[in-house]
Design a protein that fits this description.
homohexamer; mainly alpha
Chain lengths: 117, 117, 117, 117, 117, 117
């Protein structure tokens, strides 16, 4: 993993552990529910992750975008499919999405280098 | 069409005509771009419409939700697929999405009655 | 209940039933979690409902505001406490909160008339 | 005034009076500050109202859009200037702005009919 | 104070001074109003700071969350109360709140170390 | 340019090139449309850039704020005009705008030093 992705992953893991250990039941259930929501059902995992990605993009949450991009890449989403998903996010959410799009494409390039690496 | 859907469609059509006739070139181009974005590419039309639907839901735009639901229905999205898309929108966007979810399910029932009707 | 509040309550109940019957497990769990979150813990129910109210107000969700106001009223929140909660929502969220504040105060007056009965 | 604009104006006035009479000092000060912000300074009133309009549009607050359109019309904003302001709002805020744009153009037509009245 | 908190505090203080010196009367009044809003009234300071915290969290403003957490800590808010406030923010605002929740819990741990320190 | 502004400019340019080379037609058209929207029309460029700035501020997009501030500075916007635009953004968007206001004023000071430099 690149440094930026690695840092994201480590902080995410460390804080998720810390949060779940704190023992607030509602937060624990939310985290469990969050995972279940992207499991295969009538829609397959890839489609659900694309839904999570575009929702994260229009709400302009960089960490959420990174997370769903990692998962999408694992599910075999191609560069062309990523860009079409981004185009929906851009048109729905407007030019304020652009800075997040730039960072998303930077993440995409890091994920591609790792896959090749 | 039900009365509510019919009223939405009429106002939408009348105002879109009015807006495009006003002659602002940027707005005209945005409307054209908005349509193109959901055309088939690496992702099929159904997937793109689901992306538009979930993005509209987390941004809590009832009219956008209605529009993409009509299009999704035309693309053969099933009730189970609608609800899975809604579940992603709900988990990503939180309980403030619930009032829009209620109205979306009401719209779904109207669309189903029309399809049967 | 006033007509407006009654209509809100009826639509809310009817659609919640419809949604829960649809059988999407994630949505059902989200609804259950949503209820649990406002139960007494380290913070009492009144404080949690005030938190839900101000969060709904800054996110400008009228139905959520109405719901939490009904619950706050049941928990004995006074008019002065309502207005102080509104003032936090207004200062945090800005003048775009004002239309929602107007509707919230209208709801407050309806709730007061009902209480006086 | 058209029925829709008249209804908006009446509810706005009635609730503003009600809110200011409630005696919450912070809310009163916010309302006073809100008015002062659009007074002439280094920028003229028309420019400030256009700023208020585009901010209201990207935040998708219909009542705020209506209020600033009434004020812009009083300051002599032309239809072409309105549409250029809308185009900035649309491009910055994306397609979720479109339903608000439709209602804004409907309001514009009502304001024009009154002016011709 | 930890480095991160110290950096936040310094930049905040330096820029607040710079902004207030610039002499824009509306901004000065807004800053004064912002402070007043959290003073004791019908609701006590602790409750008002919790309201400010949850509002900041659902609007996903990290700096605002940090500020209100510092104030809440000063008002004696316990870890359990913090987590219950976070749980309301998470359920209302959805999974996009999670990255902000992670950073908030990191801030909480820094505040606890300082208090012990 | 200051280091921070220089870094922003470089990343922006590099990623814009990368995005446009990727060949997604909708994204390319959106970028072209985004540029056109701020060209002179019934409203002059300075006014349009101020509209873009206030819209970016209330939507709390730091990179968008920086971009429009650079353009506004080129169009001769004075410090007083910047602050009045900020005051509209602050009153419309509320105290959650303040962290972005702090960073915007920091950017303003960097732009002024460069202009003098």
């Amino acid at each position: 993993m690149s440094d930026k992705l690695e840092e994201f992953r480590k902080f995410r893991e460390r804080m998720n552990d810390r949060i779940l250990e704190a023992g607030n039941l509602e937060i624990k259930r939310f985290f469990a529910l969050d995972s279940r929501t992207y499991e295969a059902g009538a829609l397959d995992v890839k489609t659900k992750e694309l839904l999570g990605l575009v929702a994260s993009m229009v709400l302009r949450c960089d960490d959420c975008v990174t997370y769903h991009m990692v998962r999408c890449k694992e599910e075999g989403v191609t560069e062309e499919e990523f860009f079409e998903t981004f185009s929906v996010g851009l048109v729905v959410g407007g030019s304020i999405v652009i800075p997040h799009l730039r960072r998303a494409v930077d993440t995409l390039d890091q994920l591609s280098r790792e896959a090749e690496g």
